[in-house]
Amino acid sequence: MEAELRRPPLSRRRRGPARIAALAMALAGPILAGACVPDAQDLILTQGQIDERTAFVSVAPAQAWVNAPGIRSVLQRNIRTGLEQRIGLVNDSAVPGDNVMMLRTRNGVSGFGRLRFESLLASFGGMPQPFGAVSSGDLIAAEDALGPYLWVSRDFGDTTCVLGMRRLNSGMRQLPGDGGVMDVVLRNCLRGTAQQALAPILAESIGIAPIARDGQGNSRLLSPLAAPSAALVAVPGAAR
Q1: What are the backbone dihedrals phi and psi of residue 130, each rounded to the nearest 5 degrees, phi first?
Q2: DSSP alpha helices (H): ranges in 75-187?
Q3: Which string of DSSP letters, residue by residue, matches 106-117?
Q4: Among candidates 121, 223, 129, 236, which has minimal Cα distance to 173?
């Protein structure tokens, strides 16, 4: 009888676990809310952030978009505005950094437009070595059969490094995918002249779409019928 008198009332016994459960939910609420409802800013990505999260895949050298000599590797990816390739070139120099061509297309853009130095290099991840201190005022304007291009060189003993860039449109040559414009950036260091180092970005290398390559990564045409028509290469503004 005394034991029964010392037992708390039924209502108090039921209220204790309920209070503990309510307290646990109150403490867990903010944690759960933070885990399940992300900040709206986390859901908004810039074009650059989207590109950074898009991985490159390796493709065969025969699928390179240009006929540059000495191709060693080709990486490619689809981005929201078009396609991108990074072509690794042979590098026999001791200058830090890789010899590389970076190419990016933009879909549905038919106009040539102005080539902007800073924005172009920013879209490819910044200035390659050893051109970190180069500004737009250092660039030399030149022209070949495909039109204008910009370049600058640096000498390291018997080695010449060049940074070259240009923009092509679909009237100059057939472009990959639905590209209306293709931007090209070259970093190339070799034992030779600046003109030799610039060869991968000049008209002879990028004026026509590649057909096939030998085991050393050099381009070759399979037959005369495989070459593009003269009209496609020589007449700006011609239909694709």
Answers
A1: -100, 45
A2: 117-123
A3: EET--S--PPPH
A4: 236
Contact by Cβ (8 Å): 162, 188 = yes
Calpha distance 155→192 (Å, rounded): 10
What is the tens place of the pLDDT at every residue in 38-84? 445 545 666 556 666 678 999 999 999 999 989 999 999 998 889 99
- Structure token pair of residue 96: 């830090």
Model confidence pTM above 0.85? no
Distance, in Å, from the CA atom of 186 to the CA atom of 91, rounded to the nearest integer, reads 13
Instruction: Give residue-wise pLDDT tens across range 18-41.
Output: 565 555 555 445 444 444 444 455
Token representation of residue 43: 């859901």
Residue whose token pair is 């290398």: 205
Distance CA 60, CA 146 (A): 26
